[in-house]
User: What shape does this take?
Amino acid sequence: MCYHTKQTKKATEVQKRFNASIENIELFHPTSHFNAFDFPKMPIICNDEPELIKHWNWGLIPAWSEDDDIKKFTLNARIESIHDKKSFKDYTSQRCLIIANGFYEWKWHDTKGKNKEKFEIGVGKDELFAFAGLFSEWQSPVDGSSLSTFTMLTTEANELMSDIHNIKKRMPIILKPEDEHLFLEGKDLEYFSFPNYDIDLVAESQESQLRLF
Assistant: This one.
């Protein structure tokens, strides 16, 4: 799974890379560690307005939900079961790019996770990339307040990520730059699942600075 990311690039770099404008620059804050369990506002691009970079909360809240408690269970969405899960099946056409230039995973060196090694993973050279995501807009039935939220799609781990995420063997779906528009425009989700779809990643241990390819 994926619950820890970073986006440390300047606004001008992000806008240039994704050919889009930041909707509210006051919400843009380069951050070295987004923790999903804080349900942070993160930069995303939705397929209904691909020219805008918005800041929405991590943790998808379906429109039918009575409250926002469900968000802690919807940070990630398994692509293999996406069409069967009540929380996600109505949102498969509501696609978004989640902007980042790295994410973090911990490799377990024992069966209980007491000895773990932190890795930073990306596409190399600290370059920007996009995770695949789905989005929802929710209105509270109690007070009428609204929240714009998203989830991150995950798939079976490739060889590199199987070695790092060596217990659950999952990884987020990272899109190749040339495929970002295909994802937003509605290409079958199954197309982006491993082993059908893969991308070269670079991982660096934060303890030893050992680089893995």
The mean pLDDT is 95. The first strand starts at residue 4 and ends at 7.
